[in-house]
Each structure stands twice: as C-alpha cells, then as structure tokens.
Amino acid sequence: MQGTRVxxxxxxxxxxxxxxxxxxxxxxxxxxxxxxxxxxxxxxxxGIKLDAIYASDLNRAKETAAVIAAPHGLQVQEVPALxxxxxxxxxxxxxxxxxxSYPRELDTWRRNPGTTIVPGGESFQQVKERALAxxxxxxxxxxxxxxxxxxxxxxxxxxxxxxLGLDLTAVWRFRLDNTGVSVVDCYDEQRILVLxxxxxxxxxxxxxxxxxxx
Length: 214
Fold this sequence. Notes:
Elements: E1 4-10, H1 15-18, H2 32-45, E2 52-55, H3 59-69, E3 76-78, H4 95-101, H5 103-111, H6 124-141, E4 146-151, H7 153-164, E5 181-187, E6 190-198
Parallel strand pairs: 1-4, 2-3, 2-4
Antiparallel strand pairs: 1-5, 5-6
C-alpha cells in the first residue's frame, strides 16, 4: 500500500534564535547562518522527489521552504496553522528575562505545557490542535505523495506528540534544532515516525549548537 511520506523541517536560524529570545508569532527573518543552513537543506533535498512543499506563513519558515523548493520548481503553500506557539507577553524575551518577570507562570507552563496559556498567548494544546488539523488536511489532500512541511520548534514538537499519541509534557523530552529534519510515514490512520531531528547536512558548519529552543 502506498503511503504518504512527510518531511517535517524546522526553519533556519534567526538572530533571536542565536540570542535565545522567544519568537512565537513575531516575524523574524533568517540570519546569515540561517540562510546558509537553508542552502545546505536545499542540497540535501535536491535529489529527493518532492511533490509539494508547505510552510508556516511566518517569514523564517517561508524563506527556508522557498530555498528548498527552488530546484524542484515548486511553489511554497502557506499554512498559518503551522505557526509557532503564540508567546504573547514573552515574545522577544530570553528565558532568564521570563524567569525574572513571570516566575510563577513559567513554572506552571513548564509543568503543564498542554493546559497552561502563556500570558497574552496560547497553550501547547491549542498549537497541537491547529497544527494537527492542518497536517491531516494536507495528508488527505496529498495522499500517496512525498511532502515537505517547514514550521517551528514548538509547533512541530506539538505535532509529533499528537501523531505518536504522547502527552504534551513530552515536548520537553526531545529537541528540534534549526533545519533539523524529521520524517513521518502515513498509512490510513497509522502515523510512523521514521526519523527525528537529523542534522547531518550541517556537518560543514560544525553541526547544530542547540540554540533557539523555540
């Protein structure tokens, strides 16, 4: 039976990733390093037949996707539901700045990421629901094809938890680096995680440094 293969890719690095600032819905562009990472992704995917490419409508995801799409002659299809978690009042702040100003809220969010709504933002449950609905719509539309989706650390981790039936506390138990590649094969109702956060294309840059958690 022909399945649907979906490559899940986190966008390239931005300056806010580099300085460890929470981005959320803030529309931050790729840094020079992020653009180079996207170019290395382009070469990684050059020999893979891609039938369609989707991305969050935020520039860092769209730009990453457009670089990959160029050799394939594909147009990037924008999907706002794949956006990062809305960090509300925390956007633009570092983790240490959030600890200083929102210690109780941050502690609650770390312990209960699914149900806790970030001040002025949203919860991981809300992100999971919109990202999963978008993913399933795309897979239904593109059944039997090979797809690439470019999104964000938080939205992709939420989505992977949903596909594997994991509680959202599991979002803290694995990482997705900038331009990390994961693969999900879809068969009817079954979703199989084939690869998680592969970054071998970044070896010429010295590999990922883990910066920019979200």
